[in-house]
């Protein structure tokens, strides 16, 4: 079982247990009169007891799988569960004549275990003594209220007591979310001196953003597009070119910018509104000017209201060639536009023996699965960096995180080759149908030839715990996607100095995948889940941190400025999972 599925089982159990106790408590309360209710109460309590004990197994399994937060479960959930067991089990084994005693005990067990779930789901990380105390206080308050209403009065008021107790617990539970850690952050507006002189442009492009409709799958769908097309015009350059891209906004009310995803441009042209520039409003323009000195496959997209903007079509491909192209070189930017998958399937004849490079790009917010059938292929590059010594692969799928890219290369055989995305054909060299669903996925951490890590010390180390939690700091409460328990703009900046070697430890405590993306730098993968990366050095700008994953990555701080560091599932970024890396 993966850590992710263990976490799911543990979560289900941790909810079932208090539900069982509370049901038992409620039924026992009503059961003072009716014998049938009494049996139901004891059945529910018995189930809750077994489920609570089962939780010991899931927590132990999680600890053994290296789950970072097993200790927190042990510190908070275990004592509360133990208290629940101590109070409720004797009532179950030796039921007293006054069932109201059992009712209070069962309800107490329910409050205790519910408090543990609240701490896990609402407060999240980091757990502290204060949070534990508040949880205990909540349980005590809820039990006291219940006792007053149930323990000494006729049974009809018992159910009301249970509700009142639960409400008291909730109030305290909510308090526990607000109390720890003061909001520290205000959005920053730092200005950095303009980009260094990059020379006279050798390529001039104008991108005009406007609303439009585009034809997909024989339907007209509304879109926001650069130059009327989705994706926008493909920008192709050769290393050494100087790009001058003029962005115009015709009528996108929210404004637009251009971010060069994976391209480590100077900070002034990184395209992050409110940080490196202002959003370009209707009628305005902004000129991006930078030297193309990194070869590889990249993409560009708006960074203003990027969740809706990118989804509606404000993105395009950027490819920088190291040298003139030989053979066939195609880009496959995958996107979902109004529910329709792009691109439409394309076919071309390719003479046997021709070298082919397919540049796969995932511009959606979730992972896509690619499969190339009909020829052995190599993964030649990931996120724009060449893979060292990748061996030929067959019947192997390649997973791309949101924002990620991979270049697949092969020599065209005499027979057809087909590329599938999530089972759908997107590119082929002839008629073929292949079943690719059962292929295992390539693990890039074990692919290609390793070389020594170029860093011997780390000047700065940051831990990012990705999670969900209540964020009550804005006008309206929201269930935010959080980093270290806080949501944008409340997450403190990561501050570095030029030339620092920086290490990130990124841990996913939540139940969903977070494709992590740092602007302005590529990070070298050191390890995942405690296992050192053993393949070609992987310099990534986008990587999937799956539930339960612990990634260690490092980079040299060599590109001064203020850089976004966020989840590239753009709705998550929008819901708080965004912070900044700032040079002191
Ligand atoms: Cu492609 Cu800040 O994003
Ligand atoms: Cu995310």
Helical fraction equals 25-40%
Approximate shape: elongated
Mean pLDDT comes to 89
Bound molecules: CU-O-CU linkage, copper (II) ion
How large a portion of the residues is in β-strands, by DSSP E? 25-35%
- Strand tally, please? 31
Measure the end-to-end span.
Answer: 43 Å
C-alpha Rg, in Å? 28 Å
Count of helix runs: 8
Q: What about the largest sheet?
A: 7 strands, mixed
Q: Low-confidence parts, pLDDT < 50 over ≥5 residues?
A: 154-159, 168-195
Structural class: alpha+beta
Please give a quick description of this structure:
The protein is built from eight helices and 31 strands. It is an alpha+beta fold.
Overview of this structure, please?
The chain is of the alpha+beta class and 584 residues long. Helices cover 28% and strands 31% of the residues. The protein has 8 helices and 31 strands. The protein has helices spanning 3-30, 35-64, 70-93, 99-123, 129-151, 156-178, 306-312, 570-574, and strands at 203-216, 219-226, 235-238, 242-249, 259-261, 285-291, 296-301, 315-321, 328-337, 340-342, 346-347, 355-362, 368-373, 378-382, 385-386, 397-400, 405-411, 418-421, 424-428, 460-471, 478-483, 494-496, 501-508, 514-518, 523-528, 531-532, 539-540, 542-545, 550-556, 562-567, 578-583. The strands form 6 sheets. Strands 20, 21, 23, 25, 26, 27 and 29 form a 7-stranded mixed β-sheet that branches. Strands 10-9-12-17-14-15 form a 6-stranded mixed β-sheet, with no helix packed on it. Strand 14 and strand 15 form a beta hairpin. Helix 3 runs antiparallel to helix 4. The chain is elongated. The structure holds CU-O-CU linkage (C2O) and copper (II) ion.
